[in-house]
Amino acid sequence: MMPVLVFDIETIPDVAGLRALGSIPVDRGDGEVAAEAFAARREKTGSDFLPHHLHRVAAISCVFRDDEGFRVRSLGNLGDGEPKLIQDFFRIIDKYTPQLVSWNGGGFDLPVLHYRAMVNGITASRYWEMGDDDRDFKWNNYLSRYHTRHTDLMDLLALYTGRANAPLDDLAKLCGFPGKLGVDGSQVWPLYQAGRLEEIRNYCETDVVNTYLVYCRYQLMRGALSRPAYDDEVQLVRSALGALDGPHWKEYLAAW
After folding, report:
1. Distance linking the first and last C-alpha atoms of the chain
2. pLDDT class for 26, splitting at 50, 70, 90?
3. Could you give phi then psi for residue 122, rounded to 5 degrees?
4. What's the pTM?
5. What is the 3-state secondary structure (H, E, C) of the chain?
6. Which in 24, 137, 174, 193 has the greatest CB count within 10 A?
């Protein structure tokens, strides 16, 4: 089978970038810099959501499914910086050329990774292949909207119509999966400021499992998985999670 890589990122404000752009006095603390950036954005757009290029990657979590089984983990260690996380992500693509799967990855995660890879000087040649070195990528690559090496489930299920987008949490729960467990994206910056990066990584991991389970349901819907194969895949996920340490997995399975 083609390896499947489901991914999700969690981000925080790029405080150093905000300082470098000169819009906020350099003597402010990180919290003050972020608060002023949020306030300016809220006044301009009505939302705290910063432009994509002003996010910094705090965590990347992945499900990797291939012939050897199902694995879920966050990239890097707690002490690793943004460049290491991003490089690890693109190295997986370089090595395996997997099927990428995301929820709003085309609208958020990948654009942020593009900008942050550029800022950090990261090379990702396989991901950016457009057919110059591998002719197969001329007709199917990670970047063209109607190609399938990356499946953005949110965008596809809404038929590329933003007004039809559904939240992952809602759809996962409607399909009988646990969904989010008490943490959402709006809490990532406060958790990060409090030094609770492990909680952010745990939350991100449960989100990629939700995405993978919804992807399996999508594969059932389109006939790529038979009902017995789908049931076996869901049971594989349950069994794999049951073998993992970590209170977030016990909580996740209890909610299932």
Report:
1. 27
2. low
3. -90, 135
4. 0.95
5. CCCEEEEEEEEEECHHHHHHCCCCCCCCCHHHHHHHHHHHHHHHHCCCCCCHHHEEEEEEEEEEEECCEEEEEECCCCCCCHHHHHHHHHHHHHHHCCEEEECCHHHHHHHHHHHHHHHHCCCCCCCCCCCCCCCHHHHCCCCCCCCCCEEEHHHHHCCCCHHHCCCHHHHHHHCCCCCCCCCCHHHHHHHHHCCCHHHHHHHHHHHHHHHHHHHHHHHHHCCCCCHHHHHHHHHHHHHHHHCCCCHHHHHHHHCC
6. 137
Chain-centroid distance of CA 186 in Å reads 15
Structural domain spans, the chain: 4-254
Residues 194-239: tens digit of each pLDDT: 999 999 999 999 999 999 999 999 999 999 999 999 999 999 999 9
- CATH class of the structural domain 4-254: alpha beta
Beta-carbon contacts of 201 under 8 Å, excluding residues fewer than 6 positions away, are 10, 59, 61, 74, 78
Structure token digits, residue 99: 């099927």
